[in-house]
Amino acid sequence: MLSVVTIGDEEKLRSLATERNFHRFSLAEIHSATQNFDDDLVVGKGGFGKVYKGCIYGIGDTTERVVAIKRLDSFSS
Question: 75: Cβ–Cβ under 8 A, 6 or more apart, which residues?
Fold first, then answer.
């Protein structure tokens, strides 16, 4: 199943997080995972921005997970 969430649709985001047990990461957590968006961690680049390799710990445990985090360019539409 594919869910589409538009920017500003906070109610739908909260509903998805509750229904499917998603975690919304804070900007501080994302900065930590990507070492403040270090260019050495860039693994890809597209029309909307760069993709960074990051490491995030599992919720409620100490398991480190390698993730891809896309940082959208401010000029992307």
Answer: none
Strand duo 64-72 + 42-46: pairing:
unpaired
To which H or E segment does residue 51 belong?
A: strand 49-57
What is the C-alpha to C-alpha distance for residues 50 and 21, in angstroms, rounded to an integer?
27
Find the radius of gyration of the CA atoms of the chain: 14
Residues 44-53 pLDDT 10s:
998 889 999 9
pTM over 0.70: no
Residue 17 corresponds to which amino acid? A
Predicted confidence band at 2 (pLDDT cuts at 50, 70, 90)? very low
Cα dist from 37 to 13, 51, 66, whole Å:
25, 9, 15
- Give the total residue count for the chain: 77
